[in-house]
Automatic annotation (TrEMBL):
Transmembrane segments: none annotated. InterPro entries: Methyltransf_16, SAM-dependent_MTases_sf. The lineage of its organism: Bacteria, Pseudomonadati, Myxococcota, Polyangia, Polyangiales. Pfam families: Methyltransf_16 (PF10294). This is SAM-dependent methyltransferase. It comes from the Bacteria.
């Protein structure tokens, strides 16, 4: 298992001026991810790292805050995984599905990829765009897109999705996007905290023309640690 987050910095007490949105003021915090000699800064509305954080969020905050603008550990693990592929990403076309705060896509763009970050939630897209700007990365397009209707004229070498497999009702759509939009030789990277709901689609893809691999990451931030799976899918 690979350890991550130990060199990163997160302090829930650091609050920035709130974001004014159509759904009211939203508190913003900063998460700094340091890897090697580079540090990225990401705005988010609160970390949902441990299982307890997740239960608390679902009970108290879900109706108030869009979940895409929270800091989810799957995005941190996927960013680490993306960084291990630094040499392969320059000039590659990357699609991020359900980008939320946009952590892995922004790291991919920092490595020279051309990245399309998509989400259906406007507040998440706004924060995602702020994060791209904050990290002074170029080569990113942020676009409103729903998995139900997503389409693109260009294929992608890499498709990223952190914590997007939680609703089984969306599995067929997400799989169809991968089938239709992954370039030959491309790779799909999904990450999540080993959610049981994710397994049916991963197993089905593995049985039907895809090769599935797994990397485990241990993510530590102030509120605790979580083990995250990064699933790598490529066509056989
Ligand atoms: C659990 S959040 C994860 C956000 C981000 N990837 C991360 O890991 O921090 C799931 C994200 O998927 C987005 N989403 C959910 N259903 C969607 C759909 N049908 N089309 C596009 N985005 C969707 C949500 O708006 C949200 O940003």
């Amino acid at each position: 298992m690979k350890a991550a987050g130990d060199q990163s910095w997160y302090d829930a007490r650091v609050t920035l001026p709130p974001l004014r949105t159509s759904i009211g003021e939203i508190p913003l915090h900063e998460y700094r991810l340091t890897l090697g000699d580079r540090t990225w800064s990401f705005l988010h509305t609160g970390a949902v790292v441990t299982l307890e954080d997740e239960q608390r969020f679902l009970e108290r905050e879900r109706d108030r805050l869009p979940y895409g603008v929270m800091l989810w550990p799957a995005s941190i693990a996927l960013a680490h995984d993306v960084l291990t592929r630094a040499g392969e990403l320059r000039g590659k076309r990357v699609l991020e599905l359900g980008a939320g705060t946009g952590v892995p896509g922004i790291v991919a763009a920092s490595l020279g990829a051309r990245v399309l970050q998509t989400d259906r939630n406007d507040v998440a897209l706004h924060v995602c765009g702020m994060n791209a700007e904050r990290n002074r990365v170029s080569g990113i397009e942020v676009r409103s897109a729903d998995w139900e209707t997503f389409t693109s004229d260009e294929p992608f070498d890499v498709i990223l999705g952190s914590d997007v497999l939680y609703a089984t009702t969306m599995h067929d759509r997400l799989r169809a996007i991968c089938e239709a939009h992954l370039a030959p030789g491309g790779v799909v990277l999904f990450s999540d905290p080993f959610r049981a709901q994710s397994l049916p689609v991963l197993e089905a893809m593995d049985a039907e023309g895809w090769r599935a691999g797994l990397a485990k990451w241990s993510i530590a931030v102030e509120s605790g640690t979580r083990t995250i799976a990064v699933y790598e899918l490529s066509r056989r």
